[in-house]
Amino acid sequence: MNRDNHPDLVVLDWMLPGMDGLEVCRRLRERGHTDLPIIIVSANVLDPTARGTDSMYCNDFLAKPFILEDLLSKLKPHLGIEWTAAAASPNTEAQAIR
């Protein structure tokens, strides 16, 4: 991420090739992105925010697979937004995001 790029929020997978998501979080924090909300997504059920050292790097955790509503509920408090949506049709089924 360069100095001209200022995302509102970052969603990282825990298992990234070459460098894991927690290491990316650590490096972002060390580079001054202390107020940037970071959500870790992982199939590993161990929530890094529940552990002391790792919790200072990421703001939230989302276990995979998850449904869209799970992701939206995590984004809401970090972005300060209120979701609005049309009523779902009876044929709509929740799909897991893997």
Please give a structural write-up.
The mean pLDDT is 81. Strand 2, helix 2 (52-55) and strand 3 (60-63) form a beta-alpha-beta unit. This protein is globular. It is built from 3 helices and 5 strands. The protein is 27% helix and 17% strand. It is of the alpha/beta class. The protein has a 3-stranded parallel sheet, with helices on both faces. The protein has a two-stranded antiparallel ribbon with strand order 4-5.
Task: Give a quick rundown of the structure.
With about 100 residues, this protein is α/β, with parallel strands linked by helices.
**Rounded to an integer, what's the Rg over CA atoms?**
15 Å
Low-confidence stretches: none
Shape category = globular
Main sheet record: 3 strands, parallel
Work out the strand percent: 15-25%
Q: How confident overall, as mean pLDDT?
A: 81
- DSSP summary, beta strand count: 5
End-to-end C-alpha gap: 25 Å
Number of helices: 3
Strands side by side in the biggest sheet? 1-2-3
Based on secondary structure, the structural category is: alpha/beta
Approximately how much helix is present in the residues? 25-40%
What are the secondary-structure elements, in order, as H or E? EHEHEEHE
